């Protein structure tokens, strides 16, 4: 062997020796409050499906930490002087997980499918004269009447969130569940590893082009720094907390309040809220079935519930409680209001009993669906059920998991035939942001979400608020919406609180995003 070849051979061997083993794959193991039970973020309004959506899909606009829509998939846009014509151009380099480029036609098809199901989408569609593809990267929305929330609608992050999917998938009828989870987002769904209600797995999308802006709320860069995320279901909250403590899990969205002190003493764990405003326990009522088809029976519940009792029953520590919040748009937000509010503090049981008698309550069982696999849902359900017994309601609390509840709540039969009267859901500030986007405030009869409240006046006021461009007039309309909501009671606020999340201290980049997202997160 020549001297030159010998030197090259020794150099190659030395390089191999110093290269060492390939870098280990980084896996983030998370436990969110409930498992993902569906792949379709349009057909389902469940928060778990929305959480799945933020892994897989991207949005045209994202809400920043102040609730302001910022361009995400959109590169730039223009609006006419009369604010009736909006044109949007997608940024370069967007591609779906199957390798196909993202086109304006995909965006238009996704908006149209979403707009048939979501309360904000329907409002946008009703105000739209035409929505058309201009070219491969540009589309246009021409309004037929004023609508002041175009960008907010395109940034819709909850309810049926607006995610962009391929046109061929978006052409699926909105009442038919999609079976493919293909988006252009920062993670790729691993369909072969999915077990509904048990485990979902996502891999980093190597072709995702993050924006250059710093991450801010749900806007800005969505750069991914872990190779794989495993979303595992742990129905026993104590088991999940123990798994976090010993390193089997990296993140737990909603540890039970009574176990928070234990986690705070663990130096290897960080405890902090990722939802800065907090959450609410919403009591959803079925407006189509006795006794709550009568507004007096619904009103009676206002004078039974004490929000502080509910929060204490849930184990929420005093520092994390909002002892009394009557606002449908949450306390501590720019739209906080108490217009028309009553009850929910000191119980007035005789007044409640009188209203129940006036409503003609006949002692029939009241079916209260209870998602026992969520600690907070279960605790608030039990506290409220005990309170309702005090005014003579015959409570039938039926235990089930959240997936079963989300299917059962769509049934319209009488409670004795498999229907229901009430259930609890936990909502956040994005769910209740304003009169239009607050999903459960919608009172559009059969088109409303499960519970089907129906009130023409409330809908007129909500539409007027959405169309009004003058801030002073809009604030006056907000108070009118709120006062009317207290007459109709599409749902009842059981109490506002801040819930802590917990994660291993070697995990960084968890931010207060309200919705749990995992771009920008590193695991050392």
Task: Chart the SSEs and their pairings.
Blueprint: H1 3-19, E1 27-31, H2 47-56, E2 61-63, E3 69-71, E4 74-79, E5 85-90, H3 104-115, H4 119-127, E6 128-135, E7 138-143, H5 150-154, H6 167-170, E8 187-189, E9 199-204, E10 228-232, H7 237-245, E11 251-252, H8 260-264, E12 269-272, E13 279-285, H9 295-302, H10 307-313, E14 321-322, H11 349-358, E15 365-371, H12 375-389, E16 394-400, H13 402-408, E17 422-428, H14 456-467, H15 471-488, E18 491-497, E19 501-504, E20 507-508, E21 522-523
Parallel strand pairs: 1-10, 1-11, 15-16, 15-17
Antiparallel strand pairs: 2-3, 4-5, 5-7, 6-7, 8-9, 9-10, 11-19, 12-19, 13-17, 13-18, 14-18, 20-21
Keywords: Signal
Pfam family, one: SBP_bac_5
Family: Belongs to the bacterial solute-binding protein 5 family.
Specify the structural class: alpha+beta
The total beta strand count reads 21
Gap between N and C termini, in Å? Answer: 46 Å
- Which percent range describes the beta-strand content? 15-25%
Protein name: ABC transporter substrate-binding protein
Family: Belongs to the bacterial solute-binding protein 5 family.
Pfam families: SBP_bac_5
Organism: Roseomonas populi
């Amino acid at each position: 062997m020549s001297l030159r070849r010998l030197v090259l051979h020794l150099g190659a061997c030395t390089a191999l020796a110093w290269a060492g083993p390939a870098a280990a794959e980084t896996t983030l193991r998370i436990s969110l409050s409930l498992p993902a039970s569906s792949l379709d973020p349009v057909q389902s309004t469940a928060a778990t499906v929305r959480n799945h959506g933020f892994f897989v899909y991207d949005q045209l606009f994202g809400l920043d930490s102040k609730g302001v829509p910022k361009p995400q998939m959109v590169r730039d846009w223009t609006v006419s002087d009369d604010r009736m014509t909006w044109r949007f151009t997608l940024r370069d380099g967007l591609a779906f997980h199957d390798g196909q480029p993202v086109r304006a036609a995909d965006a238009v098809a996704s908006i149209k499918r979403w707009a048939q199901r979501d309360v904000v989408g329907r409002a946008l569609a009703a105000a739209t004269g035409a929505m058309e593809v201009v070219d491969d990267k540009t589309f246009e929305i021409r309004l037929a009447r004023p609508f002041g929330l175009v960008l907010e609608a395109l940034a819709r992050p909850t309810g049926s969130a607006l995610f962009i999917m391929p046109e061929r998938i978006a052409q699926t009828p909105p009442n038919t569940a999609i079976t493919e989870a293909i988006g252009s987002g920062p993670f790729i769904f691993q369909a072969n590893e999915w077990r509904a209600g048990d485990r979902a797995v996502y891999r980093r999308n190597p072709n995702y082009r993050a924006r250059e802006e710093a991450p801010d709320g749900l806007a800005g860069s969505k750069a991914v720094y872990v190779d794989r995320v495993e979303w595992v279901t742990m129905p026993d909250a104590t088991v999940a907390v123990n798994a976090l403590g010993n390193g089997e899990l990296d993140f737990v969205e909603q540890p039970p309040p009574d176990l928070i002190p234990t986690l705070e003493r663990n130096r290897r764990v960080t405890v902090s809220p990722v939802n800065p405003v907090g959450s609410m326990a919403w009591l959803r009522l079925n407006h189509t079935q006795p006794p709550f088809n009568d507004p007096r029976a619904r009103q009676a519940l206002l004078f039974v519930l004490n929000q502080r009792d509910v929060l204490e029953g849930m184990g929420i520590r005093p520092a994390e409680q909002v002892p009394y919040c009557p606002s449908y748009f949450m306390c501590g937000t720019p739209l906080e209001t108490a217009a028309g509010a009553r009850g929910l503090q000191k119980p007035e049981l005789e007044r409640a009993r009188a209203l129940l008698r006036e409503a003609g309550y006949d002692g029939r069982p009241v079916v209260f669906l209870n998602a026992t696999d969520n600690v907070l849902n279960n605790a608030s359900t039990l506290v409220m059920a005990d309170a309702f017994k005090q005014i003579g309601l015959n409570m039938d609390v039926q235990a089930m998991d959240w997936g079963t509840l989300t299917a059962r709540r769509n049934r319209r039969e009488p409670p004795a035939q498999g229907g229901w009267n009430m259930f609890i859901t936990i909502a956040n500030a994005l769910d209740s942001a304003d009169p239009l986007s607050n999903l459960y405030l919608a009172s559009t009869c059969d088109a409303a979400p499960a519970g089907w409240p129906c009130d023409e006046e409330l809908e007129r006021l909500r539409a007027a608020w959405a169309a009004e461009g003058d801030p002073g007039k809009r604030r006056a309309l907000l108070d009118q919406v709120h006062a009317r909501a207290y007459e109709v009671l599409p749902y009842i606020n059981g109490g506002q609180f801040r819930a802590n999340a917990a994660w291993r201290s070697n995990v960084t980049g968890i931010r207060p995003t309200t919705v749990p997202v995992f771009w920008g997160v590193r695991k050392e």
